[in-house]
Amino acid sequence: MAAEAPLTFGQLSTWRSIETFSPDRLMEVNVPALWDVSGLTEDAVEGALHALTGRHEALRTTFHTDASGRPFQRVHEEAPFPLARVDLPRLDGTDALRALRDLYATPFPVRGDFGRHATLLRVAGRPAWLAVSMSHMVVDVWAVRALETELRALAGGARLAPAPVPRELALLQHGEKWASRRRGADRYWRKVLDTGLPSNLPPARSGGVDERRVQATLSSHRLAALVAEASRTHKVSPQSLLTALTALALADHLDHDRVTLSVMCANRFDPAWLSLVSTLNQLVPLTLAVDRATPMSAFVKRAHLAALLAYRHGSYDVDSATRLAAEAAADGGTLFRHDCWFNYVTSPASAEGEPAATPAEPGVAPGEPGATPGGPGGAPPLTGDAPVPDAVLEWSPPPRHTGHPFYLRVNSDGARYTELTLRADPDLVPPQAVVRLLRTVVVGVRRLLVDPDTTPGALVRAVAGERLGPDLFPATPDLCPPAGPVVRDLVALPR
User: Fold this and answer.
1) How far apart are CA 469 and CA 493, in angstroms?
2) Sheet of 258-265: strands edge to edge?
3) Alpha-carbon distance 454 to 297, whole Å?
4) How many CA atoms, within 13 angstroms, populate the side-chain half-sphere of residue 133?
5) Rounded average pLDDT over 466-478
6) Which of 195, 246, 363, 443 has the most CB atoms lying inside 10 A of its own CB?
């Protein structure tokens, strides 16, 4: 017999986000992944998928709305997990990615569907990869990685501890035990609405089919080492350090003395819900003041404390926040917009093989179209004989051309590689500014190590050309057009 419950705060946040997508963009909320199942038999893969479905309620859940339009979840006792099969001519990641793209491009109905597809990719009759695409209502990136780990364990006959249940979290979040946390989140939002910026960027010139984005990714193994060293030196997290430098870069670009970033919160801090397979991530606003005369060391420490407070209130009722924002706008303010996103995604390598604890936004995940199967999505190789450049800049077609006009995503394992992917509306953040923003972050990390008493004002002047030698940041080549990936050397960071 099916059981019904309200949505968790993470599910509700995702639901409200999906409501803003037009029908032709619904595939963008899919979370794709390519799992390595080599060495397993087809029976083992099918059996493990069946076991995962029985183990995790999220894989047996459909979503609906009641008579008042309020969404709720319905958990079924059993639910099939159909498995399609495709035979590939050879063990080629390109063919596997093509199959994944086809799967990813299929949207799921928002209501009444289990929101998951899987295709077993075989080579010479043997399983090689399992291509999966799931609705973001069902999983976040952490959950997808956890499911891959569990599938291999279950296929090998492992017995796993009972999994936490989304329904129980939903009832907790809406119940009396969570009342103080809900009030705390509302107070945090009121403070942001009173003292922060409702929006950083002006409205886009046009919408609909005219919307477009440019995207550049800076990949650097050397930058990863510098971020780790600066984080230890200043006793702040790598996430907070890069958040602070992103805010500084934006403030310089916009000529503002503060910015409000929407940071992606994983909401997996409580051990009781760490291993929950569901969607938990939510955007929480973080306002950072940029005093151009304060030492950089003090600036990043203040940013770290502010980020901790934001993450503390990262699990909240998005409908309540929307009401508060509407009240603030009715009092003469401007309606709040999540226009500048920051997302730090931790690689599994940083947790000794465990799945990462920070999910990504809808439609952007390891294994998305253009990424390398089983890899970090474009990170430079770390083994082999080929030399690895200190840093490269790649312009590539963005996975989406609508939505938020500024988005900086960090992929990092905390030690061996770091990727900074910046996607922006070129009418608001032109390609030249994209390069400058990335340079500001890179040079900021370096300055925190060699001259921590330098100021944000001095840093942005340095990025503009003052006191910069070619060994730190050689001249940037002519910008690539945003269509078609071209890899170019960007900067040889000092050793």
Assistant:
1) 11
2) 282-289, 258-265, 340-346, 406-412, 418-424, 214-220, 392-395, 486-489
3) 8
4) 23
5) 41
6) 246
Provide the b/e sequence for 156-193 (b: ≥16 CB within 10 Å).
eeeeeeebbbbbebbeebbeeebeebbeebbebbeebb
Residue 187, both tokens: 């107070």
Chain centre to alpha carbon of residue 181: 24
CA distance linking residue 495 with residue 488, whole number of Å: 20
Q: pLDDT by residue (tens digit) across 37-96?
A: 999 999 999 999 999 999 999 999 999 999 999 999 999 999 999 999 999 998 888 889
More confidently predicted of 240 and 23: 240
The token pair at 214 is: 């440019």
pTM metric for this prediction: 0.85
Q: How far is CA 337 from CA 199, 260, 424, in A?
A: 5, 10, 15
Q: In sequence order, what are the residues at sequence separation of 6 or more whose Cβ sits closer than 8 angstroms to the Cβ of residue 174?
A: 6
Domains and CATH numbers, the chain: 3-160 (3.30.559.10), 175-489 (3.30.559.30)
Give the amino acid at 202.
P
